[in-house]
Write a structure and sequence with these properties.
The complex is a heterodimer.
Chain A: H1 8-16, H2 19-41, H3 46-62, H4 64-77, E1 81-85, H5 88-101, E2 106-109, H6 113-117, H7 120-126, E3 130-133, H8 136-143, H9 160-170, H10 183-200, E4 203-206, E5 210-212, E6 217-222, H11 226-232, E7 236-242, E8 246-247, H12 250-264, E9 272-276, E10 290-296, H13 319-322, H14 325-330, H15 341-352, H16 354-357, H17 369-373, H18 380-393, H19 399-412, H20 415-432, E11 438-439, H21 446-449, E12 454-455, H22 462-475
Helix pairs in contact in A: 3-12, 15-18
Chain B: H1 2-18, H2 25-37, H3 52-65, E1 69-73, H4 79-89, E2 95-98, H5 102-105, E3 116-119, E4 128-132, E5 135-137, E6 142-146, E7 161-167, E8 171-172, H6 175-185, E9 203-207, E10 212-213, E11 221-222, E12 229-235
Parallel strand pairs in B: 1-12, 2-3, 2-4, 4-7, 5-8, 7-12
Antiparallel strand pairs in B: 5-6, 6-9, 10-11
The chains are: A alpha/beta, B alpha/beta.
Chain lengths: ~475, ~240
């Protein structure tokens, strides 16, 4: 997928001016937050489970080489095949090869962010294979030729009117006067259109929420049942998974599953949590004859041993973006690549380069809500700060900002000079702003005053007032 | 594939390059082996614990919260009559695709000659199905469905209505208890596989309520791609 992350500033400005998007964001965001809060309140052990889940993933990553070897051995012992892919390009080639060997013409797909990351749909289409998205949200954005705007709710940016218009336009064979006004009409129509595609598909491709080393299983979590139909009906099932999805045992998977749905949609469990292990057994009367896992690295192994290693704990629940004021204002498309929100601000620079994605770690108020709701306790703001440092060190930050930051750093390291300079600046601002109490414009701060007034200081610095009050306290 | 074998070596080498230099690979291998051969339970929430009758009630309450329905019968012989009445009440045809499971094959279907029943996998036009289930989890009101010749997966996915026969004795508190049942009871299954690999059937589906989607305006609608209704027939088989 081509990244528009370098244009984050322009993307964000456009998103803020998009009335339809703002309507969708305002209507749907509180729902995610309320549901998660209720689920959290319903499980007194939630905080203890967060610690346990963090420890499971830290342990797995510290032994990732060994667990991956054990996992591959387990898959193969059950008659499945593991294909290791270092890059997105390699993963695309492997999937295409499996599809070609299966003589596939159409491929159904369960929702997979890895498929988005490697740009799979375009690649299949270019090579004469028709990919059909079956998750309802993925289906509509495929019809509209848009990328997902959220990692668990791909059509987060759409309103009901958008659904109705798109279905009327794209389902041209159906009667023009059919009722579509209600959500259940839309759902029923998608169900019947997609049912035929499920039955016709030659290959089914799903993602994986978890991989289990003990049993060689892959786990998908869905509410619709589309992932299960995708992997059950065709002759070949391909699982696309990145290597950090691994956990050691079924017990470890349970601990993480207790957090995943609660953090994501506020359900205790999603409707379908399915553990798949190998192809159909000799005595089975349905299920795929082939089971393939494409295990993708694409930059993740290089994060181990760096300050970004902890990002590999992420289970893609989307709680961070559901609680992020920046995501809530600009939506997912502004981030310009596959992963939006706080988790995307940390992961995207690691996967496509900080030169492409340097704006994303700045798209944060550092309020820390993302960290406080992250079920895996990932220190997201700390890692965003690390990316800002990287961008600065690699001279990716424009000269004006570098000079400003340089000047500030010079002062900040010299406390006496800092106190003097701020005293002068605050005194001058206080004098000039005394009459109106605020400034509509200030030199060097046009970006700030462009959208709001700058309140005039009262003429005394915080440090000076603090010191004065402390002295007064001591006298008492 | 040769390409992916090289890729595997390079990926593993990169991972090792990022791990601490002073690591003890022998000890690490021992740790991993121990964890995989003797899986340890993590923290089990209180809601997964309790007396038998409390667990059964909690299973029912949790499933109903997720829009599943439950009927409690005292005797398995009542099942065919209950199924016929359930279908009729919903204006569904008196036809059923059923799993060829011993518990279901043994039911007195002949007493309900108006109900036509076919044992096997689901066809796309089946309106209703009946399966057994391996276990159920009280913690979240979840059914544990294991695939196999006695449980074709398609039965739980294609029809609009999915009916499930659950014996009360198969309700456990926590997910981990269901894994323990799998580990002890499936030891003899899948004889083509090495003994230590016989635990998992092709799929274990944890099902919590009927299919749904909230993709349109983040508002819940039932009946996405899977069954629109999930009805559990709970047969008391404990003293």
């Amino acid at each position: 997928m081509l990244a528009t992350s370098p244009a984050f500033t322009e993307n964000a400005a456009r998103a803020l001016a998009d009335a339809g998007l703002q309507k969708a964001l305002a209507a749907t965001r509180p729902r995610f937050q309320d549901k998660r809060a209720k689920a959290y309140a319903g499980l007194p052990e939630f905080e203890a489970l967060r610690d346990a889940a963090r420890d499971i993933k830290n342990h797995t990553i510290a032994h990732l080489d060994l667990y991956l070897e054990a996992y591959a051995k387990s898959v193969e012992a059950q008659g499945g095949q593991v294909h290791w892919a270092e890059t997105a390009e390699e993963a695309r080639r492997i999937v295409l090869e499996i599809c070609r060997r299966a003589g596939a013409r159409t491929v159904t797909k369960g929702k997979s962010m890895i498929a988005e990351e490697i740009g799979l749909n375009d690649h299949l289409q270019t090579n004469g294979i028709v990919p059909v998205e079956t998750d309802l949200g993925e289906y509509i954005i495929q019809l509209r030729q848009e990328p997902p705007s959220h990692i668990i709710a791909p059509a987060f940016h759409l309103n009901r009117e958008d659904w109705i218009t798109t279905f009327r336009e794209k389902h041209a064979g159906l009667p023009a006067d059919r009722p579509l006004a209600e959500r259940r009409d839309l759902l029923a129509e998608a169900r019947s259109v997609l049912r035929e595609r499920f039955l016709a598909a030659d290959v089914g491709i799903t993602g994986a929420n978890l991989l289990i080393a003990e049993t060689g299983s892959s786990v998908i979590v869905t509410n619709e049942g589309n992932g299960d139909l995708t992997q059950t009906l065709p002759r070949v099932h391909i699982v696309l998974a990145s290597l950090e999805k691994l956990v050691p045992t079924l017990e470890d998977a349970c601990t993480i599953l207790r957090l995943l749905a609660r953090s994501a949609t506020g359900q205790d469990m999603s409707v379908y949590t399915t553990f798949s292990t190998g192809p159909r057994r000799a005595e089975d009367i349905d299920g795929p004859a082939e089971y393939h896992v494409v295990l993708l690295d694409n930059g993740r192994s290089a994060m181990i041993g760096t300050e970004f290693q902890e990002m590999l704990r992420c289970i893609r629940c989307a709680a961070c973006m559901n609680h992020c004021p920046v995501y809530g204002s600009v939506g997912g498309h502004a981030y310009g690549w596959v992963y939006p929100g706080p988790m995307g601000a940390v992961l995207t620079p690691a996967l496509i380069g900080v030169d492409q994605a340097r704006h994303l770690p700045n798209a944060s108020t550092f309020c820390g809500r993302c960290e406080s709701v992250c079920p895996m306790k990932i220190p997201l703001t700390k890692m965003m700060r690390h990316w800002r440092e990287h961008a600065f060190e690699r001279h990716l930050v424009p000269p004006k900002f570098r000079t400003g930051l340089g000047a500030w750093a010079f002062l900040a390291r010299r406390p006496t000079l800092y106190r003097l300079a701020t005293r002068v600046a605050i005194g001058v601002l206080g004098l000039f702003g005394r009459r109106r109490g605020r400034f509509a414009a200030l030199p060097l701060a046009g970006g700030w005053t462009g959208g709001r007034d700058f309140p005039a200081p009262e003429g005394e610095t915080f440090q000076a007032r603090y010191a004065r009050q402390k002295r007064r306290g001591a006298q008492r | 594939m040769n390409g992916t074998r090289d890729a595997r070596a390079r990926i593993l080498a990169r991972i090792r390059a990022g791990l601490p230099r002073d690591r003890d690979d022998g000890a690490r291998a021992g740790t991993v082996r121990a964890r995989l051969t003797n899986p340890q339970r993590g923290l089990i929430p209180e809601r997964a614990k309790g007396e038998r009758s409390a667990l059964i009630d909690r299973f029912v309450a949790n499933l109903e919260k997720e829009f599943g329905t439950v009927a409690r019968l005292g005797d398995a012989a009542e099942v065919p009559g209950h199924v016929a009445a359930w279908l009729a009440a919903r204006n569904l045809p008196a036809r059923l695709a059923a799993a060829p499971h011993p518990d279901l094959l043994a039911l007195p279907w002949a007493d309900r000659s108006s109900l036509s029943i076919r044992f096997g996998r689901a066809n796309p036009d089946d309106a209703a199905s009946l399966t057994a289930c391996f276990a159920a989890v009280a913690e979240t009101g979840t059914l544990v469905l294991t695939s196999g010749p006695d449980h074709p997966t398609t039965l739980a996915l294609l029809p609009e209505a999915h009916l499930v026969l659950l014996r009360a004795s198969r309700i456990v508190g926590a997910f981990e208890e269901a894994w323990d049942l799998l580990r002890t009871e499936r030891g003899q299954a899948d004889v083509a596989l090495p003994a230590e690999r016989r635990v998992m059937p092709r799929t274990v589906m944890l099902v919590t309520g009927p299919s749904r989607s909230a993709d349109i305006e983040q508002t819940l609608e039932l009946g996405a791609h899977g069954p629109r209704s999930l009805h559990v027939i709970l047969v008391e088989d404990e003293g």
